[in-house]
Amino acid sequence: MSRHPDYIPNGVIPAVILPFHDDFSIDEKSFRKHLQDVCSVKGLSAITINAHSTEVASCTFEEQQRVLEIAQDEIGAHIPIVNGIYAEGSLEGERLARAAAQGGASALLVFPPGPFTMGHRPEMVVDHFKRIADASGLPLIAFQYASSSPQSYPLDTLLELVEKVPQVRAIKDWISSPPQHNKHIELLQSRARPVNVLSTHSAWLFSSLVLGCNGLLSGSGSVIAALQSRLFQAVQAGDLKLAQQLHQQISFTADVFYAAPWVDMHNRMKEALVLMGKLPRAVVRPPLMKLGAAEIGRIKHALDQAGLLPK
């Protein structure tokens, strides 16, 4: 049962990373330290686990349960936990959702299931979310992929989803088009039962938040949660001068974290945490691979420009 039963996804929600030992086993000690470090930031509304940032695709069902267990033990009493539901099929999604609810998660971030890489029909989307909603009883965040992806939900499908599955209380919006992003904000957040739009547009986060997003959910929060929290608060307060300054700091990291290929984004964040003295090593599980020295050098330079390296 959730420790935070009234939580509705909103505000600043970092997605944390998952450290590994050299043998690819979970480094629980470093994970606990990372959780404490991220959650020491003021202004967060929740943290996200078992998502892209924790390399969920390479984690077993049992490992995902253990990740939630550690997070609950370390920070669950103080802050809500959003648990990712990453599954090839809806039945496995149900199983993951049920386990997450039993493990005390406060909300679920629902990824598109594997077959949606080949497209989908609206009724498939609704059924997938309804199964997860019924299995968990928790608020859901729909991960809206970039418009270039076949896993992205057309606006009509998205509106049908939030109408037929009222447990969908937010979307993690990666739609990539500012006009479409703005349309999501206008249509979803103005509903009688609002559906919050959580930006994940790290490359243009300042612009995205100015449009009126009710929050943000991003893996780069594993490194720059403090900057994200300050930016969100500055925009909310209408302090655009401060927001612009924070945007510049964030841009240095966004440019290097989200360079091509995107598959290495969280790999780069681990290297950043090592450079900042917050992780002992930057091990990733295959098929991800260690970054080369030149790229690590670029990450170090970006952190230096952003003022994030220890003196």
Describe the structure in your own words.
The protein is α/β, with parallel strands linked by helices. Helix content is about 45%, strand content about 10%. It has eleven helices and eight strands. It has helices spanning about 30-40, 60-75, 90-100, 120-135, 155-165, 180-190, 205-210, 220-235, 240-255, 265-275, 295-305; strands spanning about 10-15, 45-50, 80-85, 105-110, 140-145, 170-175, 195-200, 215-220. It has an eight-stranded parallel beta sheet with strand order 1-8-7-6-5-4-3-2. Helix 6 (about 180-190) links the parallel strand 6 and strand 7 (about 195-200). Helix 3 (about 90-100) runs parallel beside helix 4 (about 120-135), helix 4 packs parallel to helix 5 and helix 8 packs antiparallel against helix 9 (about 240-255). The longest helix has 18 residues, at about 240-255. The protein is globular and about 55 Å long. The termini are far apart.
